[in-house]
Structure formats: C-alpha cells, structure tokens
Amino acid sequence: MKSVDASVPDGAAATACFLDAGDTALVVEFGRDIDRHASALVLALADRVKAAAIPGVVETLPTFRSLMVHYDPLRLSQPELKARIAPLLEGLTAAEQAGCHWRLPACYDPSIGLDLLEVAERTKLSVDEVIKVHSSTTYHIYMLGFLPGFPYMGDLPAALELPRRQNPRVRVPKGSLAIAMRMSCVYSLESPGGWHVLSRTPAPLWDPRRENAGLLAAGDKVVFEPVSLDDYQSLLARADSGEWVPEPDTGGRP
Amino acid sequence: MKPALRVLAPGLLTTVQDLGRTGYQSLGVPVSGAMDIVSFAAANAIVGNPPSAAALEIAYQGPSLVVEATSVRIAYAGPETAIDILSPDGTPRRLPRLQSARLMQGETLRIGALTGSAVGYLAVEGGIDVPLMLGSRSTLTRATIGGFEGRQLRAQDRLPLATADAPEREEASLPSLDLSPPERFRVVLGPQDDYFTARGIETLLTATYTVTQSSDRMGMRLDGPKLEHADGFDIVSDGIAPGTIQVPGNGMPIVLLADRQTTGGYPKIATVISADLAPLGRLRPGAQVRFEKVSVGEAQGIRREQARMIASLRERLVPVPPTVSINLEKLYGSNLLSGWVDARE
C-alpha cells in the first residue's frame, strides 16, 4: 500500500507530442494520466530546455504529464521552437532528473488538522494509523500550481483515498497539509480549498521576501515528520521572523 | 519625503501593473500585468517612458490623485473619460486623453467614469516606483503580490514616484489610438480540442457569446450556447496559456486573462491569440464575443503587426501647442490674468 519512492522505470524511450496552446505557448505532452514515468520525462525535458537556453523561450512549466513552453513569438516562431525542442527529446529518459529530498515537520494535532477525525472515520482507520500512513510516505512533487508554492504531491497510499470535500472551505489556513484522491498538497498561502486537512507544517513554502521565494520545486521528494503542537508553534514563530528556513537533506539546487 | 501621488479617491479597481511577472510560473506564480497592453504602451509612450514602466490600470471608474512632488508628467490612454486637473483652489482644466500634462505640487488629477470599455491606463513620467517583486511591479491581489502592498489602491495611499520633478518641455499627444474590437476574436484550436465533439467546436466558431458579470482580471466567463464535451470534463491538470479558453462541466467557456492560474484541470478547447488579448481585456459585461479560427502562423503574423504598431507609437506623437496646455501657475504669475485672479479673491 505504501507507494515506493523512485519506482520510475528508466531507459524507456520518450514518446511525446506537440499541442498548440495559442501563439505564445507550446505543450509537449507525454501522456494523459498521472504517472511517475511521464512526470520524470517532463522534468527531464524541463532541465534540458533550461540548459539549452533557447533565445525567445520565456519559461517552462512542468505539469503532471506535459511541459508547457512559454515563448515570445516576436523572437521565435512555432516551427523554430519545435525544431529546437525535437532534438532535446532524443534519448530522453526518466532517469536523469534529480530533485532535492526534504524532511518537513508537520503537526497532526486535531486542533489544526481540521479533518483528521473525519478522515479517520471515513477511511475506517484510527487517527494514529492515518497519521502513520500519511507521514511514512515519501512524496514526489509532480508540479506546483493553484497558488504560489503549492505542491501537488503523490502518490498518497490508497488507504487514504477520498474524493474532495463536498463543501469546500472558504479559508484554509496557510501551511495546511491536505489530501484528496491519490494526492497530498500543502496550502502555501491561506486560500479557499476543498481538500481534507490532516495537519499543518510550519515550513515557509512561499515567502516572496526570500530571493528563492518558493521552497519546493517539481521533482523534489518530501517526507513529513510529526511534531508536537508546541514544536509546531515555536518553529512557526521562527519561520515567520525569517530565522528558520528548512534545508534539503540532499540534492541542493544550484 | 519621497515624491508621490496621494490617493484622494481610489476609483473602482485601480492597480499598479507593468508587462507582468514571467519566470515563476513553475512555482505557481501567475504572470499578471496590464490587461490591455496597447493602451498601456500608449500611455507610457506619451510621457516618454520605456514600454516596461509601471503605470496605473484603471477599471470602470478613475481615481483622484493629488501631486506630492515638485511636478509630475502624466498621460491617460484608454476609452473616453473626463480628465480634470484641479489647481489647489479647485479651478479645473480639462485634459484630453492621449495627451501629456505637467502637474505641479498640490494639483489634483481627477479621472471620471470610463465609457465604452473596461480599462484605461495612467502613466507617470519616470514610472510608479513601487518595489520590484520577483522582477515585476504588477499587482496580483489574489496572492497579495507586487504593486502597492499587493492590493488595489485605497484612499490616502501614497504612490511612490521615480521622478520628483518632471522636466519642463513641450507636451505630447497621440492623434489617435484604435481601441475597436475585432469583428471576431481569433483563436487557435487546442490544446484539448479533441475533448469536444465536432458540434462543440462548430458552436465555438459560430455562436455569439456574452461577457458575464462574473469576469475579472483572472478570467472572463462567457454565456451562450453550451460547448459539448466528447468524453467527460475532468482532465489531469496541465499548463494554462494566456487566452486559454477552458470549458468546465456546464459547457460555458471561460477565457483566462492576465491573473490566470498557471495550471488547470478543465479541457481547453482553444486559445485566443496574443494580439487579441488587449481588445478582449477591454470588454465589459454585456459585450458580445464571436470567435474565428486561425493557424499559429497567422496568429504570430498578426502579433508582429501589433508589435510594429506599438513600436510606432512614439513616432506618431505630435507636440501640443502651448495654448492647448495652459500652465495656470505661469499665467497666474504673470500680469496677463491678474484681473481675473483678483476677481476671484
């Protein structure tokens, strides 16, 4: 039931197709479903496009199963862009992408894990089992989206799989760890939201005061370590003052 | 004190915008920026700014701003509105749109209701000097990023300016600016046009849609004939381009604009071409929208034409004869108007 970290088969050849997204973006799609192999190919291509520094490419946006390339049509036509990307797909494998590994504190106290009791009830697990299952999984960050610094992480063990809440909350507090379907996420900012909140992390995932405003990137791996409410609060105070920013275990970014 | 424009009345939704915040979409940060880059570029050109200078985006109802600098040079570009400059004693003078004017300390600029379209721009020579955040001064109110404290303007805000004293010189005017919408907004089909039936595509390209009230800087919700999905309406989230037309389960298209989210999980039937985003951004609720299909190559050709038009704005500027731009302070200071001034006291 536990999803295995880095279960990506490597060496498989990449099959991709180009899709039009208007005259300023091109989609390179590797599949239509969420799977780790497609995600690894997307991230590997993102690295290659970045390294190629193609004049006129504005930025790339990796998602679950495709890479969106935003470009300036005044500097680069679509045929030119396709001609620059096609060779980058040659020999692309799932093995070459390597992200950072993070261990982030999370407090599963029911006072801030707003849906913890309900999730336990609906999954027919004890609260302790829910916490154990959620915090013993190494999550792969497929992509960031929805909010600045908001990671879509998988794969959530099937034992915790639930649809989204029927009544989304108007306000989900910043730092809330939540689950829906086979995904786990962190609300990097306070926002409306429909996922089930299990806990809260004091880690500042998004802080525009920092030069590196977003802590996490697509392709990173994350494990959540349960901490007490007291520890959560003292870490949160240190994070708010800018005194504490988590460091990855391995694989620092350049 | 830093030179500023102090807000007396903020207008309906006035925000600082520039050309947007690119480079952070992979972190989930929307691009934002001016909804109508043509009017934005025109306002900046008229005051002599580079095209990237931050300006005020005004929606529906303009602000009143008092000058707290030695002098400022401003210009408004956008739909018709009343632009009045009030001297400290309240004497108004009218300024045409698409024309620069130099305002002195203590004078008030008052911009009225916009007629015809939704947004206009007020540029200030030297630019609005709010701090750069992630490389841009654009405001994204949803995430409290950029602009003036990440939000729309409020009364008593002091908008910092880069230039404390606008140099005296001849004022400039742009003789005309075409703000008329295209007959049909042009789209490139995809990236998920295959999630719709042939009839769904046909409907998009033939029907007339109406802009609804629930439209904002993030997206424009349209009302009209339902677009028929071929096979479900939940897809695995992928990237969103500027102008993406996503279609949720109710079959009503939503065109995603400047503050669009970076990713989304509804099928995207087509994408409005980049050159048509400016006229689209000007539309108000109630406006009618029709679409037609073009190729990516055609879209890029149309975009190049638009870029040439924007680049030519500066060359098209004409000097304003001094009689049109009356400097009240100078006139009051001379004997010429002394009798008039006396009569008012």
Average pLDDT confidence of chain A is 91
Uncertain runs of chain B are: 335-345
Helix share bin of chain B: 10-25%
Compute the number of strand runs of chain A: 13
List keywords for this structure.
heterodimer; A: alpha+beta; Gyrase A, domain 2; Cyclophilin; 2 domains; 23% helix; globular; B: 345 residues; alpha+beta; eight-stranded mixed sheet; six-stranded antiparallel sheet; 26% strand; elongated
Would you kindly provide a written description of the structure presented here, covering whatever features stand out?
The complex is a heterodimer of chains A (254) and B (345). With 254 residues, chain A is an alpha+beta fold. In chain A, a hairpin with a 3-residue loop joins strand 3 (57-62) and strand 4 (66-71). Chain A has two domains: 17-89, Gyrase A, domain 2 (2-Layer Sandwich); 101-240, Cyclophilin (Beta Barrel). Chain A is 23% helix and 25% strand. Chain A has helices spanning 36-52, 78-89, 116-123, 127-135, 229-240; strands at 17-20, 25-29, 57-62, 66-71, 101-106, 139-144, 151-154, 169-172, 176-180, 183-186, 191-193, 196-200, 221-226. The longest helix of chain B is centred in the C-terminal third of the chain and has 16 residues, at 296-311. Chain B is α+β, with helices and mostly antiparallel strands and 345 residues long.
Give the SSE layout:
The complex is a heterodimer of chains A (254) and B (345).
Chain A lengths: L16 E4 L4 E5 L6 H17 L4 E6 L3 E6 L6 H12 L11 E6 L9 H8 L3 H9 L3 E6 L6 E4 L14 E4 L3 E5 L2 E4 L4 E3 L2 E5 L20 E6 L2 H12 L14
Parallel strand pairs in A: 5-13
Antiparallel strand pairs in A: 1-2, 2-4, 3-4, 6-7, 6-13, 7-10, 8-11, 9-10, 9-12
Chain B lengths: L3 E6 L3 E5 L19 H10 L8 E5 L4 E5 L2 E7 L5 E4 L5 E3 L5 E5 L3 E4 L7 E6 L33 E3 L11 E2 L11 E5 L8 H9 L2 E3 L7 E5 L14 E2 L4 E3 L7 E3 L6 E2 L3 E5 L4 H5 L6 E2 L1 E3 L2 H16 L6 E2 L8 H6 L4 H7 L1
Parallel strand pairs in B: 13-22
Antiparallel strand pairs in B: 1-4, 1-11, 2-3, 3-10, 4-9, 5-8, 5-10, 6-7, 6-9, 12-23, 13-20, 14-15, 14-21, 15-18, 16-19, 17-18, 17-20
